Recover the amino acids of this structure.
């Protein structure tokens, strides 16, 4: 269990993290979201002990990071933003160095290094110097060092930054497999990442939590939750057929593509589908939207900023 209690971090008069409290249990993958400057990376650094809190506490499996830092940090694997590595080392040398720092020796050290090299697919570059690697491979070296000691808590700051689509898919699948018996906290600005790998998401702005829930719960707060998307195969006067419905809004996205939203958030698919059949709409696609996380993100962060101003 990771427990954050009334965490505050100040830099002179600037409050980067403002009385933050939440907990994360084993098996959870928590997406930590927020606009630039919201306090995401600062929170990560305080949780991992890289920065000291101004007030509040962080408990890692019952160990206070400020009071018992060695025991707490031994349980954490951390991929910081930018994944700094020693550029003149090869990935093999760097990971061996990290393994030895973590206390592994002999065959166990070799086995740990070889295992993570295979797990993050570094085989073909493991003998190149890190400074010659692409951004994506450097990111994978950083991820390898974070999971090398099989930590209970994995904290990843922008884990797929710089990766191509295939690499992103591989890392996301790896995170999901690791999460079965770990606590994983992911800071990201890529909203699709939350839907792809996270079981829960927290959105912060100005150092405060403005939303907390499963991706599905957050999507349900979107104005597009239960919206119906209609794509027509030919020109048709859709607004005329829907003009009598007072409980909907009709949005023309482009050409013959429309989004129909419910004013009260209730399901309108059955009603729209019935009209479509009666009027014989020339439909190529008709489906219900889950809701847009991006829409919720903009809404809650905008409200938070309006509250500050």
């Amino acid at each position: 269990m990771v427990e954050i209690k009334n965490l505050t971090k100040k830099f002179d008069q600037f409050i980067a993290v403002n009385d933050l409290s939440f907990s994360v249990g084993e098996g959870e993958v928590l997406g930590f979201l927020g606009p630039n400057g919201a306090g995401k990376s600062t929170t990560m650094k305080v949780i991992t002990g890289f920065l000291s809190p101004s007030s509040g506490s962080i408990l890692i499996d019952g160990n206070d990071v400020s009071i018992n830092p060695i025991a707490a940090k031994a349980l954490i694997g951390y991929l910081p933003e930018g994944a700094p590595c020693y550029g003149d080392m090869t990935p093999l040398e760097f990971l061996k160095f990290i393994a030895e720092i973590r206390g592994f020796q002999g065959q166990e050290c070799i086995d740990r290094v070889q295992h993570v090299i295979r797990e993050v697919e570094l085989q073909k570059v493991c003998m190149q110097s890190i400074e010659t690697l692409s951004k994506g491979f450097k990111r994978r070296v950083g991820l390898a060092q974070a999971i090398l000691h099989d930590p209970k808590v994995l904290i990843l700051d922008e884990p797929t930054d710089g990766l191509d689509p295939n690499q992103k898919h591989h890392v996301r699948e790896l995170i999901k497999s690791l999460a079965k018996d770990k606590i994983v906290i992911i800071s990201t600005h890529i909203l699709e990442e939350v839907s792809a790998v996270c079981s829960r998401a927290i959105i912060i702005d100005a150092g405060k939590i403005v939303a907390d829930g499963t991706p599905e719960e957050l999507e349900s707060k979107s104005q597009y939750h239960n919206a119906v998307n209609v794509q027509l195969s030919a020109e048709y006067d859709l607004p005329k057929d829907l003009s009598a419905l007072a409980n909907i809004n009709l949005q023309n996205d482009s050409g013959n593509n429309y989004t129909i939203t419910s004013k009260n958030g209730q399901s309108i698919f059955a009603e729209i589908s019935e009209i479509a059949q009666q009027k014989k709409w020339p439909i190529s696609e008709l489906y219900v939207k889950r809701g847009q996380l991006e829409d919720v993100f903009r809404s809650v962060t905008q409200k938070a900023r309006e509250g500050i101003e």
